[in-house]
Amino acid sequence: xxxxxxxxxxxxxxxxxxxxxxxxxxxxxxxxxxxxxxxxxxxxxxxxxxxxxxxxxxxxxxxxxxxxxxxxxxxxxxxxxxxxxxxxxxxxxxxxxxxxxxxxxxxxxxxxxxxxxxxxxxxxxxxxxxxxxxxxxxxxxxxxxxxxxxxxxxxxxxxxxxxxxxxxxxxxxxxxxxxxxxxxxxxxxxxxxxxxxxxxxxxxxxxxxxxxxxxxxxxxxxxxxxxxxxxxxxxxxxxxxxxxxxxxxxxxxxxxxxxxxxxxxxxxxxxxxxxxxxxxxxxxxxxxxxxxxxxxxxxxxxxxxxxxxxxxxxxxxxxxxxxxxxxxxxxxxxx
Length: 335
Hints:
Layout: H1 2-6, H2 16-24, H3 35-41, H4 48-60, H5 66-71, H6 80-90, H7 95-108, H8 118-127, H9 131-144, H10 151-166, H11 178-203, H12 209-221, E1 234-235, E2 243-247, E3 253-254, E4 262-268, E5 273-280, H13 284-303, E6 315-319, E7 322-326
Antiparallel strand pairs: 1-2, 2-4, 3-4, 4-5, 5-7, 6-7
């Protein structure tokens, strides 16, 4: 039955008979928003007349939910009109919901027909209104620049984001104009480059973990003392709303493991400190994806009034084999 078809997951391929059934009852399905993605899958896009009718029906169809719009941005749908429609639906999402899907939306840029697509323009425009979105979009795009097959595509998006942000007046964040905002994000990359350099030096130290910790603190206090107190505050890559002013050498350490990840204590401009793990040698993108799925499931469960009291820690890949993780101090189960 058609109701059974509508419950199929997006990954299930429709049979020839199922496609014919959906096409036959297309007019009666227009009030059923869940049916649109299934209907668009049964269209023979190489048939000009059929494609034209499908696009006309799509515009008159009951508007789909934001989560269903994501399916229309998958590689299955190549029609620019369909993908533009999906972006128009995404415009209804608030910043919090958009951030939940941002990782996948950046990956969806691979399937666009042009470098300056509707999706690319949409992501940039929304990021100009929210510094957290801008910071994460910049990082997600920057990490993909290492992929030779799509480097041009992502570099184009990166340039559009930079160009538009540099033109911003002091509207996103009261006392910061676009130039200062962009520079605060660029300095994040400079910081991670310096941390990678520190990790190389520390790994080359012969001896036990304690000797490596001493070398780390020596570097932070001596040769790289500019990391102790930044010339200008930097937006935390993990929490862009937080300004960090430097690293406290005495409170920073190294974990005893093969990759010797750094545990860094950053001073916060508003007072206090935050601890971050910086790791190189692992594909942090995998951790990032898992945590994103947990966060998304938590959001969906809360929408059904089921709060499991989850607090996913923050993860951000800053390269193909490096990244930052929020440090969570150990607690007893009773706490």
